[in-house]
Design goal:
- This protein has 2 domains: about 180 residues, 3-Layer(aba) Sandwich (Rossmann fold), CATH 3.40.50; about 130 residues, N-(1-d-carboxylethyl)-l-norvaline Dehydrogenase, domain 2 (Orthogonal Bundle), CATH 1.10.1040.
- The longest helix is centred in the middle third of the chain and has 22 residues.
- The strands form 2 sheets. It has an 8-stranded mixed sheet, sandwiched between helices. It has a 4-stranded mixed sheet with strand order 4-3-10-9.
- Helices cover about 45% and strands about 20% of the residues.
């Protein structure tokens, strides 16, 4: 049976989505520990985590913050909310606390964009349960410790081996009661690739054109590319074949953009801060699949190329967006 005591979540990473989930879970009465860089942890410990609601109201959330990892975190619901490219570094931090004799099995939950993020965790921690938490909730980090909730979405919780039981149901219920509607999936591949296909046009084009999600649908040039990326991506997946949960991909992905209209995509937020993006794990994953199948992926290839050029400009001159 799942304990009815107050749930303990440890969230690794205080970016936009990590901060949003930490705030919402804490406001619902859960025990949340936010693990992040020392300067950010100290700031949040001192001033609290500020959540700006969609109505503009500011809520100050008192939250436990740490900048040194502790073994007890593994016994909580450990949510990894860092960027996909940081997974190796995350594994190096938690590896000393995990061994082959750990009982019960720890649960590692990846709240990230991208395809294949779980691979390194499976290789290093094969005995433990790996999950993906796939969300279209939208948030913008205005500054460290201050996150704006910019768009309502839904969240899918899925275990790597696609099994489902009491824990998965309980976890989804806790998130839903915290104002983050969550459903359990029993198809890992379908869930992960559905999220990638949704991210492919929204994240990348938002970054390339430097616009919010809703603006992607307002000009013919951007909308054409938006639709072409979706169509190409779906065709590649269907050739594999990989199914998605999208019955009408064009319209459903446009709805995601509309529902998060005031949000800047995570790739745009990354570029604005002079950081790398997750393009290799989203559009790049679609390109890799097309290459495996010997299919054309010109729209996604062009998108990856443009994002890489923007990343290079950031490294050379600093962010100019």
């Amino acid at each position: 049976m799942i304990s009815k005591e107050r749930a303990h979540f440890t969230i690794f990473g205080a970016g936009s989505i990590g901060s949003l989930f930490a705030a919402k879970l804490a406001l619902a009465g859960n025990h949340v520990t936010l693990f992040t860089r020392d300067e950010v942890a100290r700031q949040i410990s001192r001033y609290g985590l500020v959540l700006q609601t969609k109505q503009g109201t500011l809520q100050n959330v008192t939250i436990d913050t740490k900048f040194e990892f502790e073994a007890r975190f593994l016994s909580s619901n450990l949510i990894i909310a860092t960027k996909a490219y940081d997974n190796e570094a995350v594994c190096n931090i938690i590896k000393p606390y995990i061994n082959t004799n750990n009982k019960p099995r720890f649960k590692i939950i990846l709240l990230q964009n991208g395809v294949g993020n779980e691979n390194i965790y499976e290789q290093l921690f094969p005995r433990h349960n790996i999950y993906r938490l796939l969300t279209s909730e939208a948030a913008s980090l205005l500054k460290p410790g201050h996150v704006a909730y910019t768009g309502t979405g839904k969240t899918i919780f899925v275990r790597r081996d696609s099994q489902s039981g009491n824990y998965e149901k309980w976890f989804a219920e806790v998130l839903t009661r915290s104002g983050l509607p969550c459903q359990v999936s029993t198809n890992f591949t379908e869930s992960v690739w559905t999220k990638a296909v949704i991210n492919a046009p929204i994240n990348s084009l938002g970054a390339i054109y430097q616009v919010k999600n809703g603006q992607l649908l307002q000009t013919r040039e951007i909308l054409n590319r938006f639709e072409q990326i979706i169509t190409e991506s779906i065709n590649i997946l269907e050739t594999k074949p990989i199914k998605t949960t999208l019955l009408n991909p064009l319209e459903e992905i446009k709805d995601v953009a509309r529902n998060t209209a005031e949000n800047k995509s995570s790739m745009l937020q990354d570029l604005e801060r002079g950081k790398p993006t997750e393009i290799d794990y989203i559009n790049g994953a679609i390109v890799a699949l097309a290459k495996e199948l010997k299919l054309d992926a010109k729209e996604n290839i062009q998108t990856v190329k443009q994002i890489k050029e923007l990343e290079l400009q950031n490294r050379k001159y600093g962010s100019h967006l």
